[in-house]
Each structure stands twice: as C-alpha cells, then as structure tokens.
Recover the amino acids of this structure.
C-alpha cells in the first residue's frame, strides 16, 4: 500500500525543527510533549528512517529532505487559506505562475506589468525556476501555470498553448576562444554549465556530451551562468534572443548538438479547472507575444 504523509505529521515535524525541541514544539502546538514525541516516532517508523539525531537535536540527511517538502506543502496551505480569504473579501482572482529564467530575463517584467495594468486586483504568486522543475511542479499542482520551453514530447496530462519559437545555441565567451584549439578540444577542456542536469530539453544533448566533457556543472541561476561564462569558466546553451544582448559570447559548432530548436508557451494540467487569473494571464500572453512578433 503506498505511503501517505499527513499534513498533521509534517506540521509537527517542522515545528520540532523550528523550536529546536519537543517540549517547545508541544507548547506551540498546544499538545502534550508525549503527543509530539509519538507523532515523530510514528513518522520515522512509517518512513523507516531516522529524521532527527537526538542529543543534540539535529536533522539527519533524510530529515533535511523532508523539511524541504514540509516547507513547500505548509507554505502552499497558508497561501490557499489566504487566497480563500482574499476572494471572500473582494479580490477578483489569483495567478500562480512558474516561468523559466529565459522568459523572465527577456519578458518577465513587461509581461507582468501588462497583466497588472489589465487586471490590477489579481493576487500574484510567481517563481522563476529551471524548466524541468516547472513541469514537475505544474504536474503535481504546486503551480497552476508553467511558462517556458516545451519538452520534445510533453506529458499527456498537460494542455499546451504555444507562444513563440526559439533556438538554443551552445556558446562560449569570446575571450575564452583559443584559435589554436579546435572546437572538439574546447569541448574536452571547458565545463558545460546547464540549469539542470536532468533537463528533458537537454537530455539527448547531455547524453552525447558526457563523453566529451570532463565536468558538467548545474547552475540554475541565469545571471550566474552568464557571469561564469564571461569569466571564462565554462560554456552553456543560450537562446537566440538572449544572444542578441550578449555580443561577448560566440556560438560553438557546428555539431549535431550545438543547436536545439524550442517551442515556448504556457502549459497546465488537462484535468485542472483553471482560475480566472490563469485564463486572464493566457489571454494577455497571447496578445503580448502576437504584438511582439508583429
């Protein structure tokens, strides 16, 4: 039978961590110390792992991972309760959106400004994250809408709305180019820096490159990736529109894996009833990118 984590269990677990002890956690939760101890013991038994080192109280590796999950779930619970209260008090809609770093860098502020101008009472919750994490988060309903590149084959559970086409190129700093080295030698000597090592858009490319690169770095912040490139510390994949903003970078190739065609757009769960804010945002996006291309 599959395991299920109860909200009560993870709330007690996080409170023990935050209060650095069982007694203080019991006081905060208005229960007995024995009830807190029993909840943690039952949770560790259910998961078949130790979550806290005792004396002194400290999270184990498993406990640290569960804490990340607890923060996400309990934060979402707080957001839902706040959203319901806001709707009751007259706020018309909510928008829960996750976008990737390229969309954020190129269009994020302008797109959100246009949306807010048209829908000023909407409550926003927006996160910038790697594309793979967006797909996972939307699929698990932590976020309502995803905005970023589609996978080559999107999961059946998603509906998609394409917005624009883009090409991603393997690039390196002009200062790092060495005329005495062939491109293949550069591939062997310079680390590849990607947003996520399990990015489905790059997975075929990563498989081909692993034999050519001694090191592949995972850096999910776009600004840091670009700064590392400008300091000659690696190479990365960058979209055409971003390349126009960075003349200090040059394409590498041609290789079969030096360019990746992408379709950017919005996606959401097929079985999910979307909020008014989500429908409003999709309409704004279609207008925004139609005007951008004209």
């Amino acid at each position: 039978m599959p395991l299920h984590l109860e909200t009560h269990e993870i709330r007690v677990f996080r409170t023990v961590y935050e209060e650095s002890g069982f007694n203080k956690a019991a006081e905060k939760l208005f229960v007995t110390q024995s009830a807190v101890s029993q909840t943690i013991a039952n949770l560790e038994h259910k998961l078949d792992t130790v979550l806290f080192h005792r004396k002194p109280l400290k999270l184990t590796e498993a406990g640290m991972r569960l804490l990340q999950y607890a923060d996400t779930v309990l934060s979402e619970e707080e957001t839902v309760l706040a959203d319901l209260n806001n709707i009751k008090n007259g706020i018309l809609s909510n928008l829960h959106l996750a976008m990737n770093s390229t969309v954020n860098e190129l269009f994020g502020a302008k797109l959100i400004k246009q949306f807010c101008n048209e829908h000023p009472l909407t409550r926003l919750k927006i996160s910038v994250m790697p594309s793979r994490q967006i797909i996972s988060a939307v699929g698990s309903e932590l976020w309502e809408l995803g905005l970023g590149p589609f996978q080559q084959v999107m999961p059946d559970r998603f509906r998609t709305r394409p917005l624009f086409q883009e090409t991603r190129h393997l690039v390196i700093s002009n200062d790092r180019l060495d005329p005495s080295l062939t491109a293949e030698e550069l591939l062997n000597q310079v680390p590849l820096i990607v947003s996520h090592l399990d990015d489905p858009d790059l997975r075929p490319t990563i498989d081909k490159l692993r034999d050519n690169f001694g090191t592949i770095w995972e850096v999910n912040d776009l600004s840091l990736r670009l700064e590392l490139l400008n300091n000659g510390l690696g190479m990365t994949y960058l979209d055409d529109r971003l390349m126009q903003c960075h003349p200090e970078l040059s394409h590498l190739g041609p290789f079969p894996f030096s360019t990746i065609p992408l379709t950017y757009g919005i996606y959401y769960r097929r079985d999910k009833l979307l909020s008014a804010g989500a429908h409003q945002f999709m309409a704004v996006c279609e207008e925004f990118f139609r005007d951008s291309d004209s």
